[in-house]
């Protein structure tokens, strides 16, 4: 089994606020890891550290077999900037807010980074983008601007845009949290299809149905620690950690 993400002893603080206190996370190829836990527990910060949107203070991270940073006696040492950028590009990220480029059509949103950052052949990228749009059910929105789309459609474009970079891993940070309830299903469906295709995914989510049915592993984070992790059965049916038990009582 190939390890796609190995994060060991991750520490991160903002000013004096210790947000991640020695987090370990391992994600194997094809796994779907759901990260759950109370607000403020450090879930978003963890995702942002994995793809270098934040710099960690201590610990080591290996992505897709390549070292991003290595723990040292003083904290951590990152690889060269060029390598950091290349490794970060192995991860596609989808945020709670869709963050589409408002002045670009759907197709332009998809091809922007593959053409301008990855320097790939434009005609080929367009062909692939059209396939991705079909996959998320938005072929007819190819030349439309984001403001003309519903939240669920925008989020599906955001997923297709991340996929257009051909990532080895997809990170999702509460992708359905800002959607009206009737629109969450279409986004979860697109994510479920990705999971069925064995995409390696880390999903921060409050959608316990998704975590239960789609995740291969569930990680419960609170107070900057992984309090408990295991299969969906272990986490939802036989939780051991007291914080997890009370969290589940409140949300289920
Ligand atoms: P979660 O995603 O689990 O709700 P976050 O990772 O967003 O938690 O936040 C964890 C803690 O870190 C919170 O107390 C939050 O206010 C704080 N925090 C997150 N990002 C920053 C930042 N850029 N600067 C200062 N504090 C931050
Ligand atoms: Mg968050």
Automatic annotation (TrEMBL):
<dbReference type="GO" id="GO:0015424">
    <property type="term" value="F:ABC-type amino acid transporter activity"/>
</dbReference>
<dbReference type="InterPro" id="IPR017871">
    <property type="entry name" value="ABC_transporter-like_CS"/>
</dbReference>
<dbReference type="Pfam" id="PF00005">
    <property type="entry name" value="ABC_tran"/>
</dbReference>
<dbReference type="GO" id="GO:0016887">
    <property type="term" value="F:ATP hydrolysis activity"/>
</dbReference>
<dbReference type="GO" id="GO:0005886">
    <property type="term" value="C:plasma membrane"/>
</dbReference>
<dbReference type="InterPro" id="IPR003593">
    <property type="entry name" value="AAA+_ATPase"/>
</dbReference>
<dbReference type="GO" id="GO:0005524">
    <property type="term" value="F:ATP binding"/>
</dbReference>
<dbReference type="InterPro" id="IPR003439">
    <property type="entry name" value="ABC_transporter-like_ATP-bd"/>
</dbReference>
<dbReference type="InterPro" id="IPR027417">
    <property type="entry name" value="P-loop_NTPase"/>
</dbReference>
<dbReference type="InterPro" id="IPR050086">
    <property type="entry name" value="MetN_ABC_transporter-like"/>
</dbReference>
<keyword id="KW-0813">Transport</keyword>
<dbReference type="InterPro" id="IPR030679">
    <property type="entry name" value="ABC_ATPase_HisP-typ"/>
</dbReference>
<keyword id="KW-0067">ATP-binding</keyword>
<protein>
    <submittedName>
        <fullName>ABC transporter, ATP-binding protein</fullName>
    </submittedName>
</protein>
<feature type="domain" description="ABC transporter">
    <location>
        <begin position="5"/>
        <end position="248"/>
    </location>
</feature>
<keyword id="KW-0472">Membrane</keyword>
<keyword id="KW-0547">Nucleotide-binding</keyword>
<keyword id="KW-1003">Cell membrane</keyword>
């Amino acid at each position: 089994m190939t390890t796609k993400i190995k994060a060991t002893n991750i520490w991160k603080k903002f000013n004096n606020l210790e947000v991640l206190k020695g987090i370990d996370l391992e994600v194997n190829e094809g796994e779907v890891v759901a990260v759950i836990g109370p607000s403020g527990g450090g879930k978003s910060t963890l995702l942002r550290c994995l793809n270098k949107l934040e710099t960690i203070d201590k610990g080591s991270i290996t992505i897709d077999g390549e070292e991003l940073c290595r723990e040292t006696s003083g904290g951590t040492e990152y690889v060269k900037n060029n390598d950091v950028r290349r490794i970060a590009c192995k991860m596609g990220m989808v945020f709670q807010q869709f963050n589409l480029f408002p002045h670009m059509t759907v197709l332009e949103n998809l091809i922007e980074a593959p053409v301008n950052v990855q320097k790939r052949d434009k005609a080929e990228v367009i062909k692939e983008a059209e396939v991705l749009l079909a996959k998320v059910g938005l072929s007819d929105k190819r030349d439309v601007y984001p403001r003309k789309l519903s939240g669920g459609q925008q989020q599906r474009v955001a997923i297709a845009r991340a996929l257009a970079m051909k990532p080895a891993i997809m990170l999702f940070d509460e992708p359905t949290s800002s959607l009206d309830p009737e629109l969450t299903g279409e986004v979860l469906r697109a994510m479920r299809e990705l999971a069925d295709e064995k995409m390696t995914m880390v999903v921060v989510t409050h959608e316990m149905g998704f975590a239960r049915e789609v995740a291969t592993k569930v990680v419960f984070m609170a107070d900057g620690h992984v309090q408990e992790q295991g299969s969906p059965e272990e986490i939802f049916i036989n939780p051991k950690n007291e914080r997890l038990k009370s969290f589940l009582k409140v949300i289920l």
